[in-house]
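Bug report

Summary: structure tokens for Spore germination protein differ between web form and batch submission.
Environment: batch mode, default settings.
Steps: 1) Submit the sequence below via batch. 2) Compare with the web form result.

Sequence submitted:
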Amino acid sequence: MVREEGRISALQACGYQVSIVLATAILFVPGIVAQKARSDGWLSLLLALIFGLIVAVISSKLALRFPSQTVIQYAPRVLGPFWGKIVGFIYVYYFFYVAYYVQRQFGELMTTAYMQETPIVVFIAILTLLSCYAIYQGLEVICRVNQIVLVIFIPAFFFLLALIAKDIRWENFLPFLESGWGPPLLGALAPGAWLGEVAVILMLAPFVSDRRRVLRTSVVAVVVLFLCMFVVVVGAIGTMGAEVVARLLFPAFSLYRRIHFATIPVLDRQDAIFMMIWVAGMLFKLTTFFYAGLLALSQWLGLKTYRPLIFPTGALLAALSLMSWHNISDLVAFSAEVFPLSIDFVNFFLTGLLLLVAACRGLREVNGEFLYADGEEVKGSPGTI
């Protein structure tokens, strides 16, 4: 059975969870909540926070029941060999599904906002090759680099947004609950789904050095992500109005373009800074879900290592990202209507089902052995699929 030998700290795991969600969430969430909830978009974020915390608790509790195993390894023990295999395959596909979705998001922004004449396949190929190289270096190296980037990312993120605070028109948030609670609830689906991506801890938990802090790590990550998305949504709606934000393809990008330094011309293109930060975040998100998918697939197949799969799978994901959507309009509609529900099915329903069944059976892992609540050992060798 394949094993990843790298070790990461709880702080690195938290930073990793923040990076992988924030990179894509800030791209589409402001526009989606503005479409669904209009001036009450900020309220949608508060409701999404509740859902995100629920997913963080469910996934962390499940990971802590089987601390040295990934979800692919213990699913057959929880649900039985057949259904465990089926659920394991769904997780494998889920990780790859998010990966090729990220590839297409990256390509669309680069060709739409920056280099319209460059074929989208060029950007997808570059991002994929960088991700393949990062995965080949291993999880520990990826997390260390991410930690450095995040130290720059978060302060710069809030500093740039603080510069547009003076332009916020608070009347853009009125009237409050004009159409009742329905629109804010609908608007909460997308950001809630993105916050639920912290469930990737199901694949990372076995490699966290202090596993007892996995729950705290996930909760902190959700709160940090909520704060980041909240200030972007408030900033976008407050400065441009919900009607305008709802029509924009990339509201966060447009928001950063409104920042100007009249006295320091060299700092007058804040969208370029945003782009550099965002590209780094997209690389880490693709790398994370690509890595999780490779590790999951190799464990599902019983391979000794995932490395021979890196480049062939990367090419397949790049092809899927190009074939799955016709244009940017398809991708935006997919991001608002399909993507949130599809990942909620995995992060909330399947993960919750595994936790519920494991709890009802009293099944957990102790010192590498699968035990029932009465201490009886589960038959079969741990970690086989």
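Above is the batch result. After comparison, the two runs are identical; trailing whitespace caused the diff. Confidence is low (pLDDT under 50) at residues 381-385. The two ends are 9 Å apart (CA to CA).
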